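[Q] Does anyone have a clean structure-token version of this?
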Amino acid sequence: MKREVISIFVDNSSNVLTRVASLFGRRGFNIESLTVSATNDPAISRITVVFIGNEQALHQIITQTRKLEVVKKIFTLEKDNSLFRELLLVKVACDKSNRSALREIVEIYRGKIISLSKSCMIIELTGASEKIDGFLDMLSCYDIIETCRTGMTGISRDAETSLEDEDE
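[A] Here you go.
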């Protein structure tokens, strides 16, 4: 079993996400991360799905998803040939005694403090999931008030993954 990441180009219309996500659920796949985003074509959206499975499961879910009429293209994002990112917003309690230590951690991880008050700061961090996990681990000794993670999104380094070469 390994973490699989697939990218799905779909029609940009209502209920498409529900149809794709429910297909995964009906087939017994637990979605670990799901992101939906616009593409350069306003009629098309990109869904990035992360789930745990084996090679047979990957083949099965790709075959089943491809059959949906709203799906324009589906492909696996291979770890060695793709870039993956997540966005984290985290609200941390702070005061003048720990504010500078928190700023140092944010700088080391190349994050941004996007809001600051006397009692808390909100930090933005973008990066690979491992970077986000490491950052949260560093903040674990502070009082984390709230976190929000987008989930993984990714893009292949290959030019061949565009919609233009759908004739595969």
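[Q] Thanks! Anything notable?
[A] The mean pLDDT is 91.
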